Automatic annotation (TrEMBL):
Name of the protein in its database record: Unannotated protein
Lineage start: unclassified sequences, metagenomes, ecological metagenomes
Taxonomic source organism: freshwater metagenome
Family annotation (Gene3D superfamilies): PGBD-like superfamily/PGBD (1.10.101.10)
InterPro entries attached to this UniProt entry: PGBD-like_sf, PGBDSf
Length: 459
């Protein structure tokens, strides 16, 4: 699995998807057992109005801005057979607060079919911004990013703003750039335009068996490529007759990219981070403003895809972003690393890249991903996320990590606490506040997702 923006909605869904994808990778010898970590205590944090058989996912946590640091916002997703709704909790960490179901209102031409909320942030001491995504009946399964702003609290006036990364599709640092068309492509044609057509066909779901091997070389239009093209032409009759050839207009239709999904994951200090997919490239990450007025694409050299799940503001032009990035899968571990990076919105530059693998043991880990970030009160950060070990039988689990910072602003070595809700088959770490982590778990033989709050007993 290379893309968390469309294939990972939140929480346990992400861990399950990672576990399933990595289980398909070549099996490796199981690592030596990891010694027991410092203790973490788990408590249920259920939505009291949840129906039998429903799932509740806790996805984000932040202070509500009051002087009482035990008062927080928690965002979430509530799933029933009837659909998916956004969920917000405001109250004490010990529970007993107020729960509100929040759904993006339908508008002309955009009838909301589902809403999911992923990351809250306080507006002073009275209000809240919370980001997430929604789907409409008009666009089917595709996600639109969204931010809900309620300056006087969820009981007051609310504004829903769509945050779609349309402007980055062709202008972002990782945008698809097809070579200029020169000649009609037919059986036996070769060159860069052929390679662009082959990649576009595969990205659009029309497979070319063995592409990139001697049986179907990239850049050579062979029988497999022609068969895929014919299937595309038959499925898209508006682009001309199904003749197995590519002319200029068909080339433009095939290789012109467009937005597919946008999901906003977290916000802090006026900025939002998240992920987007296009028709031709999956797994791209962004930073934008809470108004969607300015966009920047996050890229990392050597990464085949990247996520941005957490953001924290350190000062006016200094933010720390957390997420994960995938490297080419060569059958060796790992394939995804967690990362931290410093972002300056004034210059739109990234610096101080640091990569992380669970327990600092890359040979024993296939996937590490940071899902949430909060300051530790001493210049460093507490983080939470998910990890997956090597071997086909490895299960997805969560973690709490602490990363100090050095005097020059770079990030230090992480220390780790494994998160596994007692008795669960899969546990996900979704967000973090002070020494608390929230997430979800799934019991063996069940598809119901349950939320938890874990207290980390920091030494």
């Amino acid at each position: 699995m290379k893309n968390r923006s469309s294939k990972v909605a939140a929480g346990a869904a992400g861990v399950i998807a990672v576990a399933m994808a990595c289980a398909m990778a070549p099996a490796q010898a199981a690592p030596a057992p990891i010694s027991p970590p410092p203790a973490a205590t788990f408590a249920a944090f259920a939505f009291p109005d949840a129906a039998t058989g429903s799932s509740t996912l806790l996805t984000g946590i932040r202070t509500n801005g009051s002087s009482n640091t035990s008062q927080v916002f928690m965002s979430g997703v509530y799933k029933t057979s009837a659909g998916t709704q956004g969920l917000l909790y405001e109250g004490a960490l010990s529970g007993g607060g107020d729960w509100t179901l929040l759904n993006r209102p339908s508008t002309a031409g955009a009838t909301t079919s589902s809403t999911a909320l992923y990351g809250p942030d306080n507006i002073g001491t009275t209000g809240i911004n919370v980001v997430g995504s929604y789907k409409t009946t008009q666009t089917g399964k595709l996600d639109h990013g969204v931010i809900l702003s309620a300056p006087n609290g969820v009981g007051g006036a609310k504004t829903w703003t769509t945050l779609d990364a349309t402007s980055l599709v062709t202008t972002g640092a990782h945008a698809w750039k097809a070579p200029a068309f020169n000649n009609t492509i037919t059986l036996g044609s070769q060159g860069a335009t052929v390679a662009a057509v082959q990649k576009a066909l595969v990205a659009r779901g029309f497979e070319i068996p063995g592409l990139g091997t001697s049986t179907a070389p990239l850049g050579t239009f062979g029988s497999g490529s022609k068969a895929a093209l014919l299937a595309y032409q038959q499925a898209n009759p508006g682009n001309g007759s199904a003749n197995g050839q590519v002319n200029g207009s068909l080339y433009a239709a095939l290789t012109t990219d467009s937005l597919k999904n946008t999901i906003a994951h977290s916000n802090r200090g006026g900025l939002v981070v998240g992920n987007f997919d296009t028709r031709l490239i999956e797994g791209r990450a962004f930073v934008t403003t809470t108004t969607g007025s300015k966009w920047f694409e996050i890229t990392k050299p050597g990464a085949v895809s990247i996520t941005a799940y957490g953001i924290w503001q350190n000062s006016t032009n200094n933010y720390t972003i957390a997420g994960g990035y995938f490297t080419p899968d060569t059958g060796q571990s790992p394939v995804e690393h967690g990362y931290l990076v410093t972002y300056n919105p004034s210059t739109q530059t990234l610096s101080n890249w640091a990569s992380y693998d669970f327990q600092n043991r890359p040979a024993a880990v296939r996937v590490t991903h940071f899902d949430g970030i909060t300051p530790d009160g001493n210049g460093g950060y507490n983080l939470t996320g998910d990890w997956l070990g090597v071997g086909a039988g490895s299960k997805g689990l969560g973690f709490f990590a602490h990363v100090p910072t050095r005097s020059n602003g770079t990030f230090g070595t992480a220390t780790w606490v494994q998160l596994k809700n007692p008795g669960s088959a899969i546990t996900s770490g979704n967000s973090v506040y002070e020494n608390y982590a929230i997430g979800v778990y799934v019991n063996s033989g069940s598809s119901i997702v349950y939320p938890y709050l874990a207290t980390i007993l920091v030494p």
